[in-house]
TrEMBL record:
Gene3D superfamilies, per database record: Luciferase-like domain
Stated name of the protein: FMNH2-dependent monooxygenase
Binding site for FMN: D60, T97, H147, Y151, S221, S222
Family statement: Belongs to the NtaA/SnaA/DszA monooxygenase family.
GO molecular function per UniProt: monooxygenase activity; oxidoreductase activity, acting on paired donors, with incorporation or reduction of molecular oxygen
Chain segments annotated as coiled-coil in the UniProt record: none
Taxonomic lineage from the root: Bacteria, Bacillati, Actinomycetota, Actinomycetes, Mycobacteriales
Residue span, Luciferase-like domain: 30-332
Length: 459
């Protein structure tokens, strides 16, 4: 009896402009305008592909996310960046965030189907709902819809999108020059969706793409977010600062996936890790300390106060968080991240200044300063102990942090048999070991192949 193949890690490179640490742009080595330079993103993706990463990922938000006075804040639209990257790479997956709160299914389904064609099957969609009055006011609303309502809209949005991606059967295009028929119209479907949030006739004006439809990714960790992930997601990006929290989240989500009748092995969980890597632990900690020194504490305190629905003066820098913070139920946006931050501060008895330093590197994700061996050991420990199927690698500084990970950590993981030494698949779904989805509209026409059906049905 043959043994089953060894389980392998999945690695995604989360590309955040100059780096995930909010002060990375102030380092002497950093280009403060790299966030607007397509060559920068192409080079990062090529580095990740050299390291045989499964994918690269770009976050996004339909609002100016931070004070442009304090840090680079401009964001290019991610599917445009990934389209450029697709022409400069061959294998690596390309994942972009797009909000279900401020898009329409038809346009977004078309955009991702197009990216999947352009990249020969490497597209992925990170599905998010968007909170905050600032974003709402960019779209003619006074305030954000309620948390539950946003997830209900997101669920219907995904259902409409998958119907549109399936509106062309895989063999709809026959391109028969002899009978002057390019596509079998019986295999191009009007979806006639009419629901609470959307009314969409279809079909999509893009045929079914190489992957069937893009890999579906999700990053919410609230109760609604986990229920949504269990039903729709194929990969989950999550922030889990400790091993015990990571194990609990992993087990919880896998149980929810099984409860809705899906295979837990086909829903991959990738916690974020923000590695600060150097040849010695002392050098890594020096770099981490330098980054913390470059944080602007007053600006960071203002950002933290906004998350807590407080005024900055209510968060003295050298005191712990006040006891009377709002409960999670009183917070409409990013509920799980709010709880994570409060729990971190309470558990480690951090002052506001110390909490700002911890959040500056990864916004609640696990941060780790150490040698390549220590980083590899941490990744393996989480992977082997039921906390992760892989990791969302979030370098504190770019491009140097990603280069260091690829050149010094990846070889250790490869030597241990935990990570691929070369690509064996060509699509993003292939890298993640996930199947191409069946088409919900596909029906066999009297047992005949498309050419035979056309000739009998059209005389």
């Amino acid at each position: 009896m043959s043994s089953s193949p060894q389980r392998r890690l999945h690695l995604n490179a989360f590309l955040m402009a100059i780096g995930h640490h909010e002060a990375a742009w102030r380092l002497p080595e950093s280009d403060p305008n790299a966030n607007l330079d397509i060559k920068h993103y192409i080079s990062l993706a090529q580095t990740a592909e050299r390291g045989k990463f499964d994918s690269v990922f770009l976050a996004d938000s339909p609002v100016l996310f931070s004070n442009p006075e304090r840090r680079p804040s401009g964001k290019l639209e991610p599917t445009i960046i990934l389209t450029a990257i697709s022409a400069a790479t061959e294998k690596i997956g390309l994942i972009a965030t797009a909000s279900t709160s401020y898009n329409e299914p038809y346009n977004l389904a078309r955009r991702f189907a197009s990216l999947d064609f352009v990249s020969s099957g490497r597209a992925g969609w990170n599905i998010v709902t968007t909170a905050g009055a600032d974003a709402a006011q960019n779209f003619g609303l006074d305030d954000t819809p309620a948390h539950r309502s946003r997830y209900e809209r997101a669920a219907e949005f995904v259902e409409v999108s998958t119907k549109l991606w399936d509106s062309w059967e895989d063999d709809a295009i026959v391109a028969d020059k002899d009978v002057a028929i390019h596509a079998d119209s019986a295999k191009v479907h009007v979806i006639e969706h009419e629901g609470r949030f959307f009314k969409v006739r279809g079909p999509l004006n893009v045929p079914r793409s190489p992957q069937g439809y893009p890999l579906l990714v999700q990053a919410g960790s609230s109760e609604d977010g986990k229920d949504f992930a269990a039903r729709y997601s194929e990969a989950i990006f999550t922030a889990q600062p400790t091993l015990d929290e990571g194990k609990a989240f992993y087990a919880d989500v896998k149980d929810r996936v099984a409860a809705v009748g899906r295979d837990p092995e086909q829903v991959l969980i990738l916690p974020g890790i923000v590695p600060v890597i150097a040849d010695t632990e002392e050098e890594a900690r020096e770099l981490e300390a330098e980054l913390e020194r470059l944080i602007s504490p007053e600006y960071a305190r203002k950002q933290l106060a906004q998350r807590f629905n407080l005024e900055p003066e209510q968060l003295p820098l050298d005191e712990e968080l006040p006891d009377d913070l709002p409960s999670e139920d009183e917070i409409e946006g990013a509920k799980s991240r709010y709880t994570l931050i409060v729990d971190l501060a309470r558990r480690e008895k951090l002052t506001v200044r110390q909490l700002i330093g911890r959040l500056g590197g990864g916004r609640g994700h696990r941060t780790f300063a150490g040698t390549p061996l220590q980083v590899a050991d941490t990744i393996e420990h989480w992977f082997r102990n039921g906390a992760a199927d892989g990791f969302n690698i979030m370098p504190a500084v770019l491009p140097s942090g990603l280069e260091k990970f690829v050149d010094s950590v990846v070889p250790i993981l490869q030597e241990r048999g935990l990570f691929r030494t070369d690509y064996t698949e060509t699509t993003l779904r292939g890298h993640y070991g996930l199947p191409r989805p069946a088409n919900q509209f596909a029906v066999e026409k009297d047992g005949l192949r498309p050419r035979e059906y056309l000739s009998t049905s059209r005389g």
